[in-house]
Amino acid sequence: MEKKWWHQSVVYQVYPRSFYDSNGDGIGDIQGIISKLDYLQKLGIDVIWLSPVYDSPMDDNGYDISNYQDIAKEFGTLEDIEQLIKEAKDRGIKIIMDLVVNHTSDEHAWFIEAKKSKDNPYRDYYIWRKPNEGGNPPSDLESIFSGSAWELDDVSGEYYLHLFSKKQPDLNWENDKVVKEVFDMMNWWLDKGIGGFRMDVIDLIGKEIDKNIISNGPKLHPLLQSMNKATFGDRDVLTVGETWGATVDTAKLYSDPTRQEVSMIFQFEHITMCWDDEHGKWRPKPFDLIKLKEIFNKWQTGLGDQGWNSLFWNNHDLPRTVSKYGDDKNYRIESAKMLGTTLHMMRGTPYIFQGEEIGMTNVPFESIDCYRDIETLNFYRDKIAEGFTHEEMMVGLWANSRDNARTPMHWNESHQAGFTTGTPWINVNPNYTDINVEAALADENSVFYHYQKLIQLRKEMPVVVYGDFELLAPKDKQIFAYTRTLDDSKLLVVSNFSAKKTSFTYDKPVESCKTLLSNYSSTYDLKQPLALAPYESAIIQIG
Ligand code: NOJ
Hints:
alpha/beta; single chain; 17 helices; binds 1-deoxynojirimycin
């Protein structure tokens, strides 16, 4: 496989609204990010994925863009973003931008024009359909944010499609003018020296609505190939597609280097395995380690040279990993480190979501009034109307509301966790006095330094980047163990995913046994069974 710089990179996701507020308006901003670049450099990351900072009415916190070539005032200016690109580059960090082109905001100039009349030149930039015979929406397609995916436009009497909020009308990718506008815009950003794109719900752009094909449509891959050719194909960038329904086979279509589409995709099987078949994330299922191992094993061994994995536990749409797969009460530090080790030693490009590196947790908001996320608020309203009790719904929100990830970053133990001098747009998690960057930097045993070591190991050891993965003990209910092998070099990674002690026996001969990292500061000898304390996790070099 041809080597690429992003094979050995670690990406850090910044959710700008919640990262650091430099001007006291309660909202994080680009100057805030610039002022924290030294911190990110210290962590050792190579790339920042910046969630959207473009002009937007913020119905979905910026995933509803009203101008792709300008910056939302609350985040800063185009000069600020140019400064960010440059100052990051000076520290060896690339910026990848969020590309949200399945839809725009309804306040985008294209949509404002499109709504004016049926024969407006921009009408066909979006997807319009007549009402069905009874005057109802054209189909019963549902929005991912609840309710119908069709919204009536009173002026023309037609419906437009919005797979997300009604303020996020879907672009019509069957229109060549839309395709060209998007490609031009991408080149405009690439010319500014960005390091690539994270592509929002990219599997939806090939939809064929009249055939009821939404994701993974037949036009998707041809479109991605044209995009590659017209924009980033001859630039050395990282592109990662968000693809909720991806399987190992479809992942190869996106990321097989010979097909010239994208560098890698985000797959979500390890996330949705904890969702209920009927009520999805709002009725979470208990976490099943054996299933989790099966999923990772399939992805780790399945792509081979025909693709590249992305590795992540969290992002701005997901709960905090230490709360979901670890124990954020009794073993927060141990389990946060264990989860980092388990993920970072796999094959693929790891992504860290802001705050993960200090072990931030889900937020226990008691009142629905504290939530800000449109998806959470819509589903709370609709599920209660369907018969869920408030208490049942809160269990779902505490487990899976997107706001768990979106509370402000904890910088120190002062007012509002040092995030803002004003009032934050969403409450800070009350546990910031214990969990914050300043405390983590002052403690050599913190989660921060554990992540720093994980990143260093990837830089120093080709086996971490390119080694083959082999799952051990697939049916063990407490342990997640695997090896990575590259030529003569071999690593053993063992993690106890439970609060109970256990032991693990590596039953093959080993040439050497050197402990590279342990979350209990232990050293290990493989001649005896490894005794593992709650959430204990080790990286041992055995070749
Ligand atoms: C996926 C993004 O990650 C999410 O935050 C957003 O709401 C939807 N796409 C719609 O853009």
